[in-house]
Amino acid sequence: MAVLACVAYARPKSKNCTIALSSISASATGGTGTIENVYGYLDEVQVVVTDGASTGTVVVSYQPADSTAAAVNIATNSVSDEQLWRPRVDGTDVAAAALTGDPPSRRMLYGETISFVVSGSPTNKTWRCRVKYDDGR
To answer: What is the value of pTM for the model shown?
Structure first.
């Protein structure tokens, strides 16, 4: 008799955003893009500049879909060539204080729009941001 086992696996997904500074203006050193409707557990954020050498300041954040509170930073740094983040977050207690003694977990997003901002880049460069997440199924 054959036994069939079913195991549920999360489905990995990714979404991309591109900022072509040359399409903003010939002298643009920064720009903004968005990645909309992200549903699931955020696993990785990767940012790359296509010339493989330029440096710019990158901020990846989101505005909670059901809140008017300030944007939440996911990743921010000066980036040369490319950068990979695996953002994690501490759980909180009932007073919303971080539980720093527990292991951090992946951030859950439910329909949020992720903002990708580049500044201080040389002109005429193209920046790309890719977020990898799973839908939790």
So the answer is: 0.85
